Amino acid sequence: MGGYHPEQLTNLAPATAETVDGWHDDLPAIVIGSGFGGSVTALRLGLAGIRTLVIERGQHYQYSPTKMVFGDEVSPRSESFWFRTQALWPTVPPVAINPVPGILEVARYNGITVAAGAAVGGGSLVYTGCTVQPPRRYFETLWPAGVSYRELDEVYYPLARGMVDARRVPSSLYQSDPFTHARVFDDQMASAGYPTTRAHTTFNIDKMGRELDGTLRPSAIIGESTFGNSDGVKNDMTQTYLPAALRTGNVRIQALTEVTAIHPRRHGGYLVDVTRWNADGTSAGHHQFGCRMLFLAAGSMGTTRLLVRARDTGTLPELSEHVGGNWGTNGDTIALRTFTGQPGRSQAASCVSTAFVDDGVFGIPTRIENWYSMGFDDTNGLVQFSVAVDTDNRGTWTYDKASGVVGLSDWSADKNAAAEQTALRFNQMIIDKGVAGPSQFPDPLGLTAHPLGGCEIGEATDLYGRIHGYLGLYAMDASLFPGNVGGANPSLTVMALAERNMAHILKHGQ
Ligand SMILES: Cc1cc2nc3c(=O)[nH]c(=O)nc-3n(C[C@H](O)[C@H](O)[C@H](O)COP(=O)(O)OP(=O)(O)OC[C@H]3O[C@@H](n4cnc5c(N)ncnc54)[C@H](O)[C@@H]3O)c2cc1C
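A: This is the predicted complex of the input protein with flavin-adenine dinucleotide.
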């Protein structure tokens, strides 16, 4: 299976009990989570003829070419956040909201705010579409030798890029008004001696062109992204891997269904307890599914929370002590500056260009990217987003018996410092060159959109995501990462790694 099939998830079943009738008790496979890792896993299981239920906590959104489906940074809605009573995002005022199953989970732990997608399609609905490979040297510093960079580079990175039709922004778009921020960013970088290259993006080039010519409601070109794109302008999982999985006839998806616990079944396999949600945040009841193979793809936070709880409450006591450990932020930092000259009107959301800085002048090796926030509309503000190769700072997820909560127990603000200081020094260098000014807004430090690790490959699992201690139990998402990609945004590596792991497991067995 390869290639790109742009189409919407039209045959996705609604979240009702009938959806999974006859699919309850002894499924060959369950996948928890429908983000990057879960969607790849579902497709490969479906193609192998294995009946698979994908259980997803979030909603299935229907895009519209003309209407505003989601809130955005300047007009957030309750549905912008996963069960919060107050909006929490650097560019969004902390307004009171209703706790509902919304599209973005944002949680605060000691010294770090962590964001992750919560919808059918997972992070692929809220991400910035930047689809980059880590440099070999830093990947190999962080990952076990048994995960071959060469194999990913030759086989699985190209496969994943093809499946989501990742492309570079062409000059026709780059020269348009909404990409002023990208041209300015590139000029600043070049004049400081750090020329950029174009990054692959999954923002659909043709749809962005249609937004510009007025045949689609503007979404990407006005900066919508973090809370969803109403016209589905990103080639997200609901338009790539998931429809392909459903077309196999072996895969079904159950939305608004959150897995709360995992137990082993007496005769082999697993039982998962779920809570079903109504869109207004009320419970639609509890249920249990049974399966022979269980794939955890609930993201770094989701998978880690489920596994730590299972180990420490004694439902899966044989899970290793590595579960919950080696968690990191991918060295994410947002730093702000301005540019001289006229601001563009509203600006496009997608990241266009990147430079990898590892000359040792500013601190640790860091990838610098341009980004845009709607909070800067009508100002000359620029956003520099960076991911640093932080090999040292890691956290641990633990279960607190008294509260019954799994949390990030040992993080603190100083663990962000190496990455943040590197990014801030680089930002200041650009300002000192006289090609940018300081921002009037404070840098929103202590934020990651790239939670990684918690079920590390080669430690908590074997080299293909088989979780140690239990047959037929797998992790297939960003929880497998060693806390940091190695100088890249994670999504491409999540897809490529899941492709690699599934190819191996389907060939060699449980
Ligand atoms: C604002 C933002 C911008 C980003 N920009 C980029 C970018 O430009 N490029 C890039 O590479 N990466 C980006 N990322 C990061 C990227 O989205 C993640 O690294 C990626 O989504 C991780 O994939 P995953 O499969 O591990 O998990 P996810 O894609 O997060 O999928 C996990 C799924 O599991 C579901 N789930 C969780 N818990 C449960 C449960 N208990 N029961 C049932 N379902 C559950 C979630 O709702 C979700 O759908 C961004 C992230 C954010 C938040």
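Confidence is low (pLDDT under 50) at residues 1-7, 10-19. Residues 261 and 355 are 42 Å apart (CA to CA).
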